[in-house]
Amino acid sequence: MTSPSDADARRAIKPVICYPNDTLLEPDLALYASAREGAQKVAEVLAPPREAACFRAPAGHFFRITSVEGPQVGDLNLWNANDLSERFYSGKSRALHGTHLTTGERMWSSFPHMRPMATITTDTLNWYGIDGFGGSVHDVIGTRCDPYTGNLLSGTQYHHCCHSNLIRALADETGMSLAEAEPHVHDVLNVFMCTGFTRDTGQYFMKASPVRPGDYIEFFAEIDILGALSACPGGDCSTGHSSDDAACYPLLVEVFAPQQGALDGWQSPASNGYDRSHGR
């Protein structure tokens, strides 16, 4: 089809940020850092290669995800530990902060709550920035590898995709059946994964993660958290996923409790203030 005569002029229109975030309440990173100094480890769990594991982090605690043994990416789900209907909302987190999250940015919860669930307090990969391909780390654009897309594209019946891993972990943690657990599994924070969109076709791409053993990302739990982390079958996601081909390694989750009084003055955020009348 022939381009219109004003095609170049239309393309040249400057973009507008959809959700300017300068009015968001800034997290008190200095308070969090102070509370973290004396915090003691109270729990840890290891997500094995091509498997997932659940963990719990009460409000006011810290949880850290660390690469151990080799480069590995992980798919992270978060829920309100007291109400699984409140869960991480990757799309709105992306709209508020951008396609990739790092220090000082937050994982927001689903409607009608829409409040901070966790704040990133430390990210040892925040030096990476945006590379020449448009790639960056810790994305909220990918969904999670899943057996349905694998079956659609390749006719496979592969069961260790992150979607299925998260379902099994949640079912084991809560006592739900797989069928009951599946609707609770949601779009993820792709921890350590390096991704972007191609400039020519706009396709979602992945490339070898810059993560190395010892790298970690740490969060402050703003509410009582139930989390599930899958050590993706793609390993460092340098070639493919949804198979047993890639070299995979475990991911460590540690939970830390601050000392008594370290968070004096801090309160867990309330649910969103919208009155839910929806115009009626």
What does the radius of gyration come to?
20 Å
Count up the helices: 6
DSSP helix fraction: 10-25%
> Unreliable segments (pLDDT under 50, ≥5 consecutive)?
none
Largest sheet: 7 strands, antiparallel
Structural class call reads: alpha+beta
Fraction in beta strands: 25-35%
Quick one: how many beta strands? 13
N- to C-terminal separation?
Answer: 45 Å
Overall mean pLDDT: 96
Helix/strand order: HHEEEEEHEEEHHHEEEEE
Judging from the principal axes of the Cα atoms, what is the shape? Answer: globular
Summarize the structure.
With 280 residues, the chain is an alpha+beta fold.
Describe this structure as you would to a colleague.
This protein has 280 residues and is an alpha+beta fold. It is built from six helices and 13 strands. The strands form two sheets. Strands 2, 4, 5, 8, 9, 10 and 12 form a seven-stranded antiparallel β-sheet that branches. Strands 1-13-3-11-7-6 form a six-stranded antiparallel β-sheet. Strand 4 (74-80) and strand 5 (83-87) form a beta hairpin. The longest helix has 13 residues, at 162-174.
